[in-house]
Design a protein that fits this description.
Blueprint (H helix, E strand, L loop, with lengths): L8 E5 L4 H11 L6 E6 L10 E5 L5 H9 L9 E4 L20 H22 L9 E6 L15 H24 L3 E7 L2 E2 L16 E2 L1 H13 L9 E3 L4 E2 L2
Parallel strand pairs: 1-2, 1-4, 2-3, 4-5, 5-6, 6-9, 7-8
Antiparallel strand pairs: 9-10
Helix pairs in contact: 1-5, 2-3, 3-4
């Protein structure tokens, strides 16, 4: 893959979040990029005229179809980013022990962190370019790796991301059969200075907490180094593969 040469038409889903917005703005800095179509739950404004924003109801599959069809105006998307996801919100807090498990936590995080991205891939992946290398990137988290789990906790979030990683692997097999130039990867953006990580930053090494812009730049660099053989893998922000 190539960060600038091949990426002409890009879609970014989830630009209401810090990372999604940073990804869109990062690629807007490349002269080879002609159009960046973005989607978010609420209207987002961008100064770069190449970035076009549409609102999207992630929980209405009919709306997902309509949103994906907006990309039919192009000959094919060279990259599609799914940057949606949540670790916590007003009524979901990561669990520290088994006694804190609730059905609500699991249902909420699986819906947001597994089901929504899966349906986005279902409807948006057919919009990838069919005649030259094209990539779909789904943001995941290192804590979704079963083999890398050394601290426990965060049950629902870990399980939802592990399920998402399996989905990406599964989808990569079908996508490869369908079009040999297309690929899909799950990518861990690192710990990003955003509302998602805010409650936990006090326990983190400041040098390992990236601004959204730095995280987006790392992701773009890693994507540029991928090959079609990497489809289905979990890739960290620095380009290293994460074991499932």
């Amino acid at each position: 893959m190539n960060d600038t040469l091949n990426l002409k038409n890009i879609a970014v889903i989830g630009v209401g979040g810090a990372i999604g917005r940073a990804v869109a703005e990062h690629y807007a800095g490349h002269s080879g990029v002609e159009r960046i179509i973005t989607f978010s739950r609420s209207r987002q404004n961008f100064t770069d005229k190449r970035i076009v924003n549409h609102t999207l109801n992630y929980y209405d599959e009919t709306h997902l179809v309509q949103a994906a069809n907006r990309l039919d105006h192009f000959e094919g998307m060279d990259a599609i980013f799914v940057t949606t996801g949540v670790l916590h919100n007003d009524d979901v807090v990561p669990e520290k022990s088994l006694k804190e498990l609730t059905m609500h936590n699991f249902e909420t995080l699986f819906r947001i962190d597994t089901i929504v991205p899966a349906l986005l891939v279902k409807h948006f992946s057919p919009k990838l370019h069919k005649n030259r290398p094209a990539i779909m990137v789904v943001l995941t988290a290192r804590v979704g790796s079963i083999s890398d789990n050394r601290f426990g906790g965060w049950y629902a979030y870990r399980c939802a991301k592990a399920a998402l990683n399996m989905f990406v692997k599964n989808a990569s097999i079908e996508i490869k059969r369908r079009y040999r130039h297309q690929m899909i990867v799950a990518m861990h953006p690192g710990t990003v200075d955003s509302p998602l990580s805010e409650p936990y930053k006090a326990n983190l090494d400041p040098s390992k907490v990236f601004s959204p812009a730095v995280s987006a730049a790392h992701l773009a660099k890693s994507i540029a180094g991928l090959s079609l053989e990497d489809s289905g893998k979990i890739i960290a922000w620095d380009g290293e593969e994460i074991d499932p």
